[in-house]
Write a structure and sequence with these properties.
Strand content: 15-25%
Number of domains: 2
Order of helices and strands: HHHHHHHEEEEEEEEEE
Largest sheet: 10 strands, antiparallel
């Protein structure tokens, strides 16, 4: 028990610095695990698409998303390696300091032992005390002898403590070296996979470029579906905002029903910006905003008012915050879509096969709203977040 306490005491000496590094390492490990999950989902979709024809454009999107995830994973590994290298250097410096202290203590202790050995005859100690010229001098000499014995005991304790701390650092160094080697191996493996994925991306680009007319027809059909979605959802939200006296343009189609409850809910929603849970677990394959076509760079894609994620088949979509279901609509390419109101905010859950709610239902954070559909062999989920009639980038609102 005493040895264990000494080891723990020694480990605590460098606790403040190690705690910060440990926190960074935990965060990096969490990010690595999440990226590996995303890559696994993308790999599964690519594998399922390999037997289907005319999926090159989707596959290119999936491969490029996987490349981005892989690059982030490698960057995280590089950062982990940097922290490990820094920790190893710190550990070595601490070992050198402890070794120097141990040598100094041992040398001093050796001198004490030699001095004591030379005067080991107890009669000499007694004579030293009895030969005192006064009682005061005798007490002082007796105190000196007693403190000498005490100092030897204390010195021996300090040596044992330093030895224990040195052993702790040696064990920590071995662990850090093992972690460093494992991280270097993972980086090498991930870079090899990345090169293969980049080659696959290049092959798909060449294939798409060689038959532009065929793939442009597919692109036009998908663009039409996205434009219809944007128009329909914007129209629904504008009408709902007008009812509540929100920022929608045009005349209100009915009585304004905004209440203190709506205001409170809006404020609560806004205060959770950056902390809302993701509605599904998956890998983002289409981000918010305006983008160029991945192959035909002179072609602008329609505005993406949300994010699209590749997910596992049968994934359940969950509400990101408390609210009320206002609409359920069915749109080509997006199947069933659930619109949830959160005061002045709205969230959209689309590409659903089944819906677990109905208009007017109150939903809670984390409540299941539906199950993601498999459309054309693809398991994709589309999510949007609006403030009144203005679409927001969901990534700014959802947790990292």
């Amino acid at each position: 028990m005493k040895k264990l306490l000494l080891i723990l005491l020694a480990a605590a000496l460098s606790l403040p610095v190690q705690a910060q590094k440990s926190s960074s390492m935990k965060k990096l490990e969490s990010q690595r695990a999440q990226l590996e999950k995303e890559i696994a989902i993308l790999n599964r979709q690519l594998k399922e698409n390999s037997s289907a024809r005319e999926k090159e454009l989707t596959n290119l999107t999936l491969v490029r998303s996987k490349i981005q995830a892989r690059e982030k994973l490698i960057a995280g590994c590089d950062e982990t390696l940097r922290i490990l290298d820094d920790s190893i250097r710190t550990c070595r410096r601490e070992m050198e300091r402890l070794q120097a202290r141990h040598d100094t203590l041992s040398s001093y202790y050796s001198r004490l032992v030699r001095s004591t050995y030379k005067n080991r005859d107890s009669r000499m100690w007694y004579m030293y005390v009895l030969a005192s010229e006064s009682i005061g001098q005798g007490f002082r000499r007796f105190g000196y002898l007693r403190s000498l014995a005490s100092e030897m005991g204390a010195q021996a304790t300090r040596i044992r403590e330093t030895s224990a701390a040195l052993e702790v650092e040696k064990e920590r160094l071995e662990g850090l070296r093992a972690a460093e080697a494992a991280t270097r191996n993972q980086i090498a493996s991930e870079r090899t996979k990345l090169r293969g994925e980049e080659e696959e991306s290049n092959r798909l680009v060449q294939k798409l470029g060689s038959d532009r007319k065929k793939y442009q027809q597919q692109l036009q059909a998908k663009n039409k579906q996205k434009e219809d979605l944007n128009k329909k959802i914007a129209d629904l939200i504008r009408k709902e905002s007008q009812k509540k006296g929100g920022g929608g343009s045009g005349k209100s189609g009915g009585k304004k029903t905004s209440t203190a409850v709506d205001t409170k809910l809006s404020n609560e929603f806004a205060s959770n910006k950056g902390r809302l849970p993701w509605p599904v677990e998956g890998a983002i394959v289409e981000r918010f905003g305006k983008h160029k076509h991945p192959v035909y760079q002179n072609v602008d894609l329609p505005q993406n008012n949300g994010v699209t994620l590749a997910v596992k088949r049968g994934t359940q979509a969950k509400a990101v915050f408390n609210g009320t279901v206002t609409q359920i609509v069915v749109l080509p390419g997006y199947n069933q879509c659930v619109l949830v109101n959160h005061g002045a905010y709205f969230t959209l859950y689309s590409k659903l096969a089944t819906v677990a709610v109905k208009p007017g239902d109150k939903v809670k954070t984390g409540q299941i709203v539906g199950t993601v559909d498999t459309i054309g062999g693809e398991d994709l989920f589309h999510f949007e977040l609006w403030h009144d009639t203005t679409p927001q980038n969901p990534e700014n609102w959802l947790r990292d």
